[in-house]
Design brief:
Layout lengths: L9 E4 L2 E4 L2 E3 L8 H9 L4 E8 H6 L2 H6 L9 E6 L3 H14 L3 E6 L4 H5 L10 H14 L4 E8 L7 H11 L3 E8 L12 H8 L4 E4 L5 H11 L3 E4 L8 H12 L8 H19 L1 H8 L3 H5 L5 H10 L3 H21 L1
Parallel strand pairs: 3-4, 3-10, 4-5, 5-6, 6-7, 7-8, 8-9, 9-10
Antiparallel strand pairs: 1-2
This protein binds flavin mononucleotide (FMN).
Length: 337
């Protein structure tokens, strides 16, 4: 008889049902369509777009239009929206719904000054009543599930998440993601997962844990220590989408999957770059891709020097050449070892 796989957590959002879910976090300038597709192929169960300003969606802004493109192969996919005006958020949600997304996520977690100054993102943690009104208005205006991603509170002395989670649940959202930090902590300091069990005690909708999940072992520990329904990975996936495959394998077998070999890392890096160029055009594609090299080359011998060359190159062919030469170099040292 086939052995039953251990279930650490499960997630249901509308028609989507996933066991042991490991999700790709929304990240501005990172989780565009090409990257999301790679993460899905390598095991991410659900992917999220970068956040998109509601006002820009309504204005039909060019950049936002590109952020709203989705591909059938990446489902389940959520587009994330943010804003400070309730009517604009409702209108934006209706536009997003027509694209055919699996669900809509609302961002109440962004700490960046420009966003907070405009009373959007994490600023709503200071105005919980408005957050609730906005969420309910969006939930009531669309037929697709709506989820929320937020933080513990504004700062350590104003952690409101336990009560807030209940109020958010009452608006009819389908799931809640918690980045286990406060707004003041931004993305620094240690995420405090200990709030997840306290939130879960208070609500029935699925709770997704986010913050400081860096390894497959962290994913398992997050499920075991907190009882969360899903685990969301952000920075650890930048330039290392293999983390999803490794995490899923670890959950399913209890064994560590060997990391990708050099050739696979380079192949995926180049596939990612090619798709970015196709998606954004050569110049923008090459420049915006630069943040990914350190992840794709992380831990590889003498990679610092190679990275320097890659981030100053403005030619795809040259990048292929640099990486192929580096591949040969690494294999030659390996064969001598
Ligand atoms: C470059 C970058 C861009 C981000 N953009 C967004 C965003 O658009 N929407 C959002 O909800 N969170 C955004 N975040 C926060 C992440 O989704 C996540 O909550 C945070 O990085 C903590 O998770 P981690 O420790 O796994 O990285 C961003 C984070 C980074 C590093």
């Amino acid at each position: 008889m086939k052995e039953q796989k251990k279930i650490y957590g499960s997630l249901k959002i509308g028609k989507i049902e996933v066991k042991n879910p490991v999700l790709l976090a929304p990240m501005e300038d990172v989780t565009d369509l090409p990257f999301r597709l790679i993460c899905r192929t390598l095991g991410a169960d659900i992917v999220y777009s970068e956040f998109i300003a509601s006002e820009a969606i309504i204005r039909d802004a060019k950049r936002s239009k590109q952020k709203m493109l989705i591909d059938e192969r990446e489902r389940p996919i959520a587009l994330q929206i943010f804003g400070s005006n309730v009517d604009a958020m409702v209108e934006a949600a209706k536009i997003i719904e027509k694209i055919g997304v699996d669900f809509i996520d609302i961002n109440y977690g962004c700490w960046v000054k420009n966003v907070v100054r405009n009373n959007a993102g994490a600023a709503l943690l200071k105005e919980p009543d408005k957050m609730i009104t906005m969420t309910k208005a969006v939930v009531d205006s669309v037929n697709v599930p709506v989820t929320v991603k937020t933080r513990l509170g504004w700062d350590r002395s104003s952690i409101i998440i336990v009560d807030l989670a209940k109020r958010l649940e009452d608006t009819g959202i389908a799931a809640l993601t918690i980045h286990c930090r406060t707004r003041i902590e931004a993305i620094k300091g240690e995420a405090d997962w200990s709030w997840i069990p306290k939130i879960k005690e208070n609500i029935l909708i699925p709770v997704i844990l986010n913050g400081d999940v860096k390894t497959p072992q962290d994913v398992k520990r997050a499920f075991e220590e907190t009882g969360c329904n899903g685990v969301m990975i952000g920075r650890a996936a930048i330039g290392y989408p293999f983390i999803f495959r490794e995490a899923k394998h670890f959950l399913e077998t209890g064994e560590e999957l060997a990391p990708p070999d050099i050739s696979e890392r380079i192949d995926i890096c180049l596939e990612h770059l090619r798709n970015e160029i196709k998606f954004k055009g050569t110049q923008r594609g090459l420049i915006e891709f630069r943040k990914n090299y350190s992840g794709y080359l992380k831990g590889l011998r003498d990679s610092h020097h190679i990275r320097q060359k890659l981030v100053t190159s403005d030619s795809y062919d040259e990048i292929v050449h640099i990486l192929n030469e580096y591949n040969d170099y690494l294999y030659s040292i390996e064969s001598l070892a």
